[in-house]
Amino acid sequence: KATVKLLPKPKYALDLLAVFDSPEQAIGAVGAILKQGIVPTCVEYMDNITIDGEKYLHEKLQGSDSGNYLIVEVEGIHDDDLDDKPRFDELCTQHGASSVLVADNNKSGRPARPCEAVRAESLIVSKEDVVVPVDQEPLLLAEILRLAGKYGLITRIASHAATEHHLNILKPDDTPYEDWARRVEQNQQELYAFIYAHGGRLSGEHGIGFKRKHLMEEFTNPDELAMMKAIKKALDPNNILNPGKIFDIE
Known about the structure:
By secondary structure, the chain is of the alpha+beta class. It contains 9 helices and 7 strands; from the N terminus they run βαβααβαβαβαββααα. The protein has helices at 23-35, 48-51, 54-57, 85-94, 112-121, 137-150, 177-197, 213-219, 222-235; strands at 12-20, 42-46, 68-76, 97-102, 125-130, 154-160, 164-170. It has a 7-stranded antiparallel beta sheet with strand order 4-1-3-2-6-7-5, sandwiched between helices. A hairpin with a 3-residue loop joins β6 and β7. α1 (23-35) packs antiparallel against α6 (137-150) and α6 runs antiparallel to α7.
């Protein structure tokens, strides 16, 4: 018989903000944290370009002048469950952190805040939710920025480090929509090809939907896709559960 263990809601929580000079240092620290057996509630990453969105919030964020953020939340039932802070501090410093701070939740750039900045910057946004293995994440971040430069795209990165990377590709007000959409599509083709070549997938959290269904067909291994469709048919023989949201069933 399976055993279900119910855990009480943690009473204590601590947000730690590590500021790094480069994206590679920040993401490189994530694997080191996990390998040491530290299990945070969440690990979030923001690059310096995204942190610059503070100007739209009319407030100064911690370490925003040149830093790249790792925001780590740890929780515990007891106060001493948060004693991983010294280890976290040491690991981040070893991987190039210029400072490790106890974050002010109002100024640490948590996920809702970059979203506010993005909305202030542009109301038309192409969102991505890409994922690669942890050891490939520094390469992915470099490729995202390279492609943004190649296609002249404004790309903001706010990630759940070690899981998925959220990209917000913004349309400037003075750019015709058709021209912007064409460059976004070209960016997608190169980005997804890179991601699949490095063991990743085009969505890590938010699903496929109608918008990327054709891309799912294009980039997914045909055998894997056939297996997914077979499972769908077995569990939903009448195809009534979100039909056509990931792929079409013939």
